[in-house]
């Protein structure tokens, strides 16, 4: 005998109040000051419900009520605003060579930044120590305590699955400790949301960069090592183990052969040219301790140095193959070149555009990021804000009014 269909759960007053609170908070979070009337129109709720919910949100600390001002007719409308200083989030970029921490309010505005070198770090404990010290420096600079932090997004240059676990199949990926997030939570008390750095770069570009209003996107981190974050219809792609967008396949790609990024190629080729006495180039004079930086190669090319220009031509040809492959596989509308060399990489765009048309009939538009070396930490802030928005009514505010 077939079982009767399960009775759907009854909507209790408490449940309805919570749903309504989430609806009102969601509207206020993405708006400026709103009156009770405008909230009624935006949510479809009754006046009594809107005012009751706003009173609850005010007592919780999520909403503030502003002075209604004066009006010549009738009683002035109540005016409400999302409390962007109800708490704070952190955006942490845990790079192989440097850790950067942004402290942001709940409107996404940066209130402090700190960075520390991680050069020479060899153990998990040392890396945790560097990240912890950078966090403390940033919070101290902002005048904010751990109790006021609601969440932290953190990016690492390794695949991270949907549960926040780091894939360590590659030697480079093993430099990042899979237990770091848990230890930071133990030290500070707030949740740490671990994610791949290129995925966070895609979030950052989509939120505050060149890819606003672009939902089919690839962000190519192109510094020391290529890495890509993929977004399809506004949704990040992870893959079964977090490996979507990893660039190890470049070792198999003709004309590329490895995962070395633009900065590394420029530095190595520039240093090689500067060390050859038979090569007339301004890079020889720029070399310090025998090494040329990527920035010096780009600067020399901008000044017309033929050797530096040749290096950039080679880099553009190589990068065009990388971008074309991503374009063919994922068909994005836009590919953004990001990372520390993004601004200088604008010099590559004319050559890139010319060569892409020869590789694919649907070449993506290519742009350089305006976020500079903050691209991952900005995306980490967005990742943390997403968590706060989804869990707001379950979070205890350290800034809660007495």
TrEMBL record:
> Could you tell me which InterPro entries the record lists for this protein?
ATPase_NBD (IPR043129), ROK (IPR000600), Tscrpt_reg_IclR_N (IPR005471), WH-like_DNA-bd_sf (IPR036388), WH_DNA-bd_sf (IPR036390)
Gene3D superfamilies noted in UniProt? 3.30.420.40, Winged helix-like DNA-binding domain superfamily/Winged helix DNA-binding domain
User: HTH iclR-type domain spans which residues?
Assistant: 21-64
Q: Which domain of life is it from?
A: Bacteria
**SUPFAM superfamilies from the UniProt entry:** Actin-like ATPase domain, Winged helix' DNA-binding domain
Family, similarity comment: Belongs to the ROK (NagC/XylR) family.
PANTHER family registered for this protein in UniProt: BIFUNCTIONAL UDP-N-ACETYLGLUCOSAMINE 2-EPIMERASE_N-ACETYLMANNOSAMINE KINASE, ROK (REPRESSOR, ORF, KINASE) FAMILY
- Name of the protein this chain belongs to: ROK family transcriptional regulator
Q: What is the lineage of its organism?
A: Bacteria, Bacillati, Actinomycetota, Actinomycetes, Propionibacteriales
